Amino acid sequence: MTFDPYQMLVFVHIILFVYWLGGDLGVFVTSKYVADRKLTMDERFRFMHALLVCDMGPRTSLILFIPVGFQMAWQMGVSPIGGVFLAGIWAFCLAWLAANWWLFYNERHASANFVRDWDIRLRYVVMAIMLSMGGYSLFADTPMADNWLAAKIFLFGCLMALGVYLRGEIKQWIIGFGMVRQGGETADKGNTIIEESLVRSQRAALLLWFGVALAAFLGKVKPF
After folding, report:
1. Among 11, 18, 20, 110, which is most exposed with the fewest C-beta within 10 angstroms?
2. For the residues of 140-164, what is the DSSP string, one character each?
3. Chain segment 29-68, per-residue pLDDT in tens
4. Contacts of range 131-138, beta carbons closer than 8 Å, 24 or more positions apart
5. CA separation, residue 93 to residues 41, 53, 60, 119, 191 (Å)
C-alpha cells in the first residue's frame, strides 16, 4: 500500500470540520448557562471557562483550514498558489496558530493584550484577502478558475467575519460580568447585557453553522 499525501490532507480537512462544528456546538450549549441568573457567579464562570475551552476547537480549525485548503487545491491542480508562496502560507498560519494557543494559556501575561490586538488585525487582513480573492475569481476566473473554489474562498472570508463578530459579543459578556459583580441595579443591567448578547450570538452561530455546511457542500459536490 502506497502513502497518498492528498488523502491524508482530506482526512485532516474532515477532522477540522468536525472540531469546528463540534466546538461551536459546545460553545452554543454552554453559553445559555453563562447567562443564567439563577446560577451562582462561580458556576457561571465555570461555564464561561468551559465555553472558552470549546472555542479553541473552532479557532484552531479556522486557521488551519487556510494552509490545508490551499495545499489541497494546489495538489488538485485548481490553484496556482504553490512553491514558496504556499510554504509562506503554512509558516504564517502555524505561527498565527501558536500565538492563539499562547494567548489561551497566558491570558494574564503582560504581552497578552498586544498579541490579542495583533490577532484581531491579522483576522481583518486575512478576511479581506479571502473576500477579495474569492470575489474577484468569481467574476474574472483568475487566479482561481473553478467557480466552486472561488465561492468557497469568498464564503470562508464571510465565516471569518462572523467569527470576529462573535468575539466582539464575548467581550460584551465580560463587560456584563464586571457589572454583575458590582451588585444592585448595576448587576441587573449587566445581566441584561449578557442576555441580549447571548441572543445575538446564538443567531450568528446558527448562520455560521449554515456557512460551514455550505463550504463543505461546495468542496465535496463542486456544483459549478
Report:
1. 110
2. H--S---HHHHHHHHHHHHHHHHHH
3. 998 898 898 999 889 889 988 988 999 999 999 999 999 9
4. 131/157, 131/158
5. 37, 20, 10, 11, 37
DSSP string, 184-222: HHHHHHHHHHHHHHHHHHHHHHHHHHHHHHHHHHHHHH-
Q: What is the mean pLDDT of the chain?
A: 93
Global pTM exceeds 0.90: yes
> Residue 46 corresponds to which cell in the numbers above?
465555570
Surface-to-core class of residue 58, CB atoms within 10 Å of its CB (0-12 exposed, 13-18 middle, 19+ buried) = buried
For residue range 76-96, list pLDDT tens digits in order.
999 999 999 999 999 999 999
Instruction: Quickly count helices (H) and strands (E) in the chain.
Output: 6, 0
Cβ-based neighbour number of residue 143 at 10 Å: 14
Q: For the chain, how many structural domains are there in total?
A: 1
- Closest to 124 in 3D by CA, of 174, 170, 168, 85: 168
C-beta separation of 145 from 134 below 8 A: no
Cis peptide before 5 (omega within 30 of 0): no
Largest CA distance in the chain: 69
pLDDT tens, residue by residue, 16-29: 999 998 998 898 89
C-alpha cell of residue 162: 462572523
Measured in whole angstroms, the distance separating CA 116 from the mean position of its chain's CA atoms is 15
CA-to-CA separations, 2 to 6, 12, 15, 77, 189, in angstroms, rounded = 12, 18, 22, 21, 62
